[in-house]
Amino acid sequence: MPVFIWEGRNRAGDVRKGETEAANEQALTSALRGQQITLVKAKKKSRQIKLEIPFLTGVGTKDLVVFTRQFATMIDAGLPLVQCLDILGNTTENKKFSTVLLDVKGTVESGETFSKSLARHPKVFDNLFTNLVAAGETGGILDTIMNRLAIFIEKSDKLKRRIKGAMVYPIAILVITALILTVMMVKVIPTFETMFKDFGAGALPAPTRILIVLSHTFIGNLPFMVLGFIAISVAFTFFLRWPKGRYAWDTILLGLPIFGALIRKAVVARFCRTLGTLLSSGVPILDALEIVAKTSGNKVVERAVFFSRDRIAEGKDMVTPLGESKVFPAMVIQMIGVGEQTGALDAMLQKVADFYEDEVDVAVESLTSLLEPIMMVFLGGLVGGVIIAMYLPIFDLAGNIKAE
Asked: What is the pLDDT of residues 251-307, one digit of tens each?
């Protein structure tokens, strides 16, 4: 759909400018009329091809936290909304974020609400962010909401980094092991085999013969193995994009022997933190649960939360359907029940989130300290076994030379 750069006047006669997507100029006129703006002139915005590298031009968590904190400070100091956006849009170092903020400023100037202007950029401001801003606008506590958002984003990012840190170490060790073994199979073992033939070594020890056979098999099937790896990766990607496939994968993750408990704690912490932040900001319980479900990042939790939301809409309490889902620990269910009974559900959820975030920190530290020696022994034993197997014939040759 084309984007129009337009200029118009509101009922007071003030000039308004902005950019709006519309099928044609007639549709643009109708859209602006709904905002009580009379179109004066408009032209289609020319399409520009931009070469962007995502990890260099994307809007990161740090950019978002800095924006929300600075914006909250400016609003609290009494600066007008448009002026805040203009200052932040022109001073941020991230060019892409600057473009987004200036677009939001233009949309607000055209008469749109701040939350709806943010919603035009879902890749930067997600559903949770825009709904909290809408609640802040309605309640007149936008500065408070933005501060809560900054704290929430920081805590969520810390939790994600903890989980990724626990996953990265064993994956990195396995990748390094695979690379070392590949180099040995392709380069080192064939070199040793040639050397043994040149020296006229007789019958090779069984471990050496097994490794040479494995090396020949590996080299002969390497193209097929690479193609197979690519095919499996593509198939797995499509499998995760399929809703039932993603649900099955998330179920497997939650059931893993060691990592499953860690992932479950992180999921519970995120659920409690998100729901507690939404409820404390004045978002209705049904809307809050819908947002929590969509931003949970886990299909199993998403289905459980939607199930609970439907039961609550029928007049039931939150505890019963959450307990029936079998996703959340009994302690969490009981704490939520106490929060409902005392009327302090938002505060109780924040306490549960703090507890489980601390649990994640402890679990990650314990897991890392346990995995480090195991992975090092695994890597050392595998590589050392290959080296010993290839040096056994050399020891035999040295013994024969001494005997002569």
From this structure: 998 888 878 888 888 888 888 888 888 888 888 888 888 888 888 888 888 888 898
Are 99 and 229 contained in the same domain?
A: no
Q: Which domain-ending residue is among 136, 154, 172?
A: 154
**pLDDT score of 56:** 43
Structurally, the chain folds into a number of domains equal to: 3
Tell me the residue range of the domain where 395 lies: 156-404
Task: Classify residue 52: in a domain, yes or no.
Answer: no
Across the chain, what does the average pLDDT equal? 82
Tell me: do 240 and 100 sit in the same domain: no
The mean pLDDT value for 3-14 works out to 79
What is the model's pTM?
Answer: 0.67
Q: For residues 293 and 152, what is the distance between their CA atoms, to the nearest angstrom?
A: 16
Tell me: do 221 and 92 sit in the same domain.
no
